[in-house]
Specification:
The complex is a heterodimer of chains A (about 650) and B (about 250). With about 650 residues, chain A is of the alpha+beta class. Chain A is built from 19 helices and 19 strands. Chain A is globular, with a radius of gyration of 24 Å. Classes of the chains: A alpha+beta (about 650), B alpha+beta (about 250).
């Protein structure tokens, strides 16, 4: 199979591309819209917004989610906020600035045109959400409040206490329920996608399993939208919900969709450290805490040792003995340095033996000075719910002792390759939100995930999907087609194969083993040796999984081990492609840090004081492309296809936050 | 490390009759969460040839509303203001016996073991729990100032995570707090006014049609709510409902 990676970026000046594209996009006659069926997989911000909006437009929509209700999608867990270039604060923000910050934050590994469109529609999102009744924070004058977030030097983040994702998702869910009630959307909760069906090379349907009855069935449509989130759970421990998985995207990849930049994973700097091997997930503490909290470790290993053994407490460490390492290394951004930079800095000090927390993998996030400056009541009103959450989990009162935090996997920038219309290389298959690769490059800025999910769902896909549908005869595919029968049979036989293994190890034990391997060798820092080790070990894990996993019970009723097993089997296959990508990308950029590629004292940029040694070193000449991987089966290495990144408007520069 | 005894509701499908089964939960780390304790027990069950205890869970940080266990007779346990997934084992004592049951209500049929079907709550929202605003038709977000007090009250009601603890805690299985929270959230905002009467009538009627009971003012719902949503919203909904009903009858 050969691919032409045509990004379909419209011609013309950057700031007019989207308007021009909307004008040039096809329209579907209102009377014809109801003849088209669109299958939406996922009901988070991207999927829910798309399903609701497409139904409002008059399309027939079927929406699927694995949770018991669309309201529970993982978008709900986002705490901090959502960016928009409203410039309500009159502090110099603009569409242009949000665009530039996002491109730079992504370490110049995203498409200019997509990112500019995202910044443009960001303003419409806020209007839409407020109209839906989303209770954003307000000032006493009744207008919307903003805060600065995650390294931005303007206040462009809208928020709803620490529950912005929840409030946005509930707004979106209500719009979806409204359309369900009107009959425009047929909702299938507790239903998991297990395969994508292609008819004459076009995505025309899906195979799903009912998670209550176990029944495997087919759904045919005129186009498929996948908004199925990220793959952070390949690491086993992450801040993702337990059910988050790569299965939908991976099943599409097995059918020929290209997987772009899988090695770009984001490690969030402020999570509660791991406490034991029974741990099932990690908990994020909102990044907004970095607005007032100061991050430090002791200057000496000896002091760190005493803190770990609880011989002394943090407040007994004198100021002179503390290393506020982010403030020291990045004086102008300090504790608000971008996520990738802050996370790596925390790892470095822990690697030096100066980490705290019993495991040595932790740094302090201290509110002592902010409390002195602002008073405890202000701190309580800003972060009360987060402090309470910390207390519940860690069993320590953060008003008295500093929080302990450590980086954890949080978001994945990679995803299925899509063009400007958000369509993958498989005609008809559209991919939205975290599941696609398009907007965040190698690193995502804080409060931009919610923005992208809603931009894709509310404002981009409703326009761009018509470009595909206009070329199609509605209702052309039927579940009676042989392609559906065959895919259904394959799915059933895979389920039966899993159930028949009856080995000696639990699904979780394989998942944990894979996750640890990925964290160690394909996590915050990667190198050739470790990645090659993974490429040797992962096939062994896969081999053993298919011979030795134990899944009790039957397939014809709710069976949570069976659900997990299917997902873990896909994670194992996917992990290999991820390591191939990380290995072939011989540079460091954003969330992808190759230890072989960093600035050293020998570099002129370091000597001039522009950048610190140890920072990520990009190689724009050789790696200024999107890496889109074609799956070739488990016995063969995947094939790399490149989409060159062309910068017409901005000049990629060294990303210095010093 | 804790050694505990679990009494767990097991029921294979919605058609089966269920029963309480006893499990030993030995060597449970105090730092583990309640659901991690169940993970540990499940691993042992699987390795000894049994089928694991099924329960709903997803985010495990108290916001998605999936987890739904009745612990020692109280939805989400007797701890105030938390969900099942936020309970840590340090709250239990060596030798404790813990009773674990699903969220029980007539409108919540058991799916398997501790998993129940809460789709009736989605249907209450679908009946009217929204502001009907077509994507793309909104005015500038700052064109309608909303007093901070109203915005904050709306937020307090909007904090509902739809877990159903209020319903499971109520002896009548009433969905009044859940429904009232949504009526109150949208009713506090200027954007919610045009549909205010229609909303409350449709939602309350759907609630009744689903088989949820009435409110008899015991406030168990507020006590069980992980987001500590106040029963004052129920009073507000009753007022809205009465006024909307009168208007409806005058018009018809």
């Amino acid at each position: 199979m050969s691919f032409v990676l045509d990004s379909k970026i419209p011609a013309g000046p950057l700031d007019q591309k989207w308007s021009k594209h909307k004008m040039d996009s096809k329209l579907i006659n209102p009377a014809n819209k109801r003849k088209f069926t669109i299958l939406v997989v996922g009901s988070g911000l991207a999927g829910g917004a798309a399903a609701a909006t497409l139904s409002e437009l008059g399309y027939k929509v079927k929406c699927f989610c694995y949770q018991d209700s669309p309201r529970r999608a993982h978008s709900i867990a986002a705490q901090g906020g959502i960016n928009a270039a409203k410039n309500y604060q009159n502090d110099g923000d603009s569409v242009r600035r949000l665009f530039y910050d996002t491109i730079k934050g992504g370490d110049f590994r995203s498409r200019e045109a997509n990112v500019h469109r995202l910044a443009e529609v960001s303003v419409n999102i806020i209007d839409q959400c407020v109209a839906q009744g989303v209770p954003f924070a307000r000032e006493y004058g009744g207008l919307l409040d903003n805060r600065s977030f995650g390294g931005a030097q303007v206040s462009r983040t809208f928020y709803a206490r620490g529950q912005t994702g929840q409030q946005l998702l509930i707004g979106c869910y209500q719009a979806l329920e409204k359309e369900i009630h009107k009959g425009g959307v047929e909702m299938h909760p507790r239903t998991e996608l297990l395969d994508l069906v292609l008819v004459d090379g076009h995505a025309k349907g899906i195979i799903v399993r009912d998670l209550v009855t176990g029944k495997v069935s087919s759904h045919a449509g005129d186009a498929v939208i996948m908004a199925t989130g990220g793959y952070g759970n390949v690491f086993f421990l992450s801040t993702n919900a337990m059910g988050c998985n790569v299965t939908a995207a991976w099943r599409a990849a097995r059918r020929g969709a290209l997987f772009a930049n899988p090695c770009y994973t984001q490690i969030h700097p402020t999570c509660i450290p791991v406490s034991g091997d029974y741990q099932s997930k990690l908990t994020l503490m909102s990044e907004s805490l970095r607005n007032d909290g100061r991050i430090w470790v002791p200057k000496s290993k000896e002091t760190a040792e005493k803190l770990r053994k609880k011989q002394i407490t943090a407040d007994q460490v004198a100021d002179d003995d503390r290393d506020y390492f982010l403030e020291r290394k990045y004086p102008s951004f300090g504790n608000l340095s971008p996520r990738d930079i802050s996370s790596r800095a925390a790892k470095e000090v822990c690697d030096e033996g100066r980490g705290i927390a019993p495991t040595g993998l932790g740094v302090y996030l201290d509110f002592r000075d902010a409390t002195k400056r602002l008073g405890e009541s202000t701190i309580r009103s800003r972060y009360g719910n987060l402090f309470q959450m910390y207390d519940k989990i860690a069993g320590e009162d953060p008003y008295k002792q500093p929080m302990m935090i450590y980086p954890a996997v949080h978001y994945t920038m990679g995803g299925l390759w899509v063009d400007y219309n958000l369509m993958s290389n498989i005609p008809g298959l559209h991919v939205l939100g975290e599941a696609n690769f398009s907007d965040h490059g190698a690193n995502r800025l804080g409060a931009s995930a919610l923005m992208q999910g809603l931009a894709d769902g509310y404002f981009v896909i409703p326009t761009t999907i018509a470009n595909y549908l206009a070329t199609q005869k509605p209702g052309s595919a039927s579940v009676n087609d042989s392609a559906f029968k065959q895919a259904e049979e394959e799915t059933n036989s895979r389920v039966n194969q899993l159930l028949g293994i009856n080995g000696k190890r639990t699904v979780d034990s394989f998942h944990r083993e894979l996750g640890l391997l990925m964290w160690d060798n394909c996590g915050m820092a990667r190198n050739k040796e470790g990645l090659e080790e993974n490429l040797k070990r992962i096939p062994e894990i896969r081999e053993e999984f298919w011979q030795n996993v134990r899944i009790p019970g039957a397939g014809n009723l709710a069976n949570m081990e069976l659900e997990k097993a299917g997902r873990v089997a896909d994670f194992i296959e996917f992990a290999e492609v991820m390591c191939h990508d990380a290995l072939s990308r011989e540079e460091s950029c954003g969330g992808h840090f190759r230890t072989e590629h960093q600035y050293t004292e020998a570099d002129p940029e370091v000597q001039s004081g522009f950048i610190a040694s140890g920072e990520a070193k990009r190689h724009d000449d050789t790696f200024g492309y999107v890496a889109a991987w074609q799956y070739n089966g488990n016995d063969q290495a995947p094939t790399l296809h490149k989409e060159p990144l062309i910068f017409e408007d901005v000049h990629p520069s060294v990303r210095s936050y010093k | 490390m804790l050694n505990l005894t679990l009494k767990v509701w097991r029921q294979k499908t919605s058609q089966d009759t269920g029963s309480m089964e006893t499990y030993d939960a030995k060597n449970i780390p105090e730092e583990a969460s309640f659901l991690e304790m169940l993970d540990i027990v499940n691993t042992r069950i699987i390795m000894s040839g049994g089928e694991p205890i099924h329960f709903d869970h997803d985010c495990r940080e108290g916001i998605c509303g999936s987890c739904s266990l009745t612990i020692n007779g109280v939805p989400h346990s007797k701890e105030k203001g938390i969900t099942t997934c936020q309970i840590h084992m340090r709250k239990f004592k060596e030798g404790d016996t813990i009773w674990i049951e699903p969220f029980r209500a007539r409108a919540f049929p058991v799916v398997r073991d501790l998993i129940v079907d809460r789709s009736a709550m989605d249907r209450i929202i679908a009946a009217g729990g929204y502001i009907d605003v077509r994507t793309g038709s909104a005015v500038d977000a700052n064109s309608i100032p909303i007093s901070k007090m109203d915005a904050d009250s709306a937020f307090d009601a909007a904090a509902c995570i739809g877990c159903g603890a209020c319903i499971a805690a109520c002896k009548n299985s009433s969905a009044m707090l859940f429904t009232a929270a949504k009526v109150s959230h949208l009713g506090h905002l200027p954007q919610g006014q045009p549909e205010r009467d229609k909303r409350v009538l449709s939602m309350v009627r759907q609630m009744d049609a689903e088989g949820f009971g009435n409110c008899t003012n015991q406030y168990e719902c507020e006590a069980a709510c992980p987001k500590e949503i106040s029963v004052d919203h129920i009073a507000r909904m009753n007022r809205d409902f009465t006024s909307a009903l009168i208007k409806e009858q005058l018009i018809s």
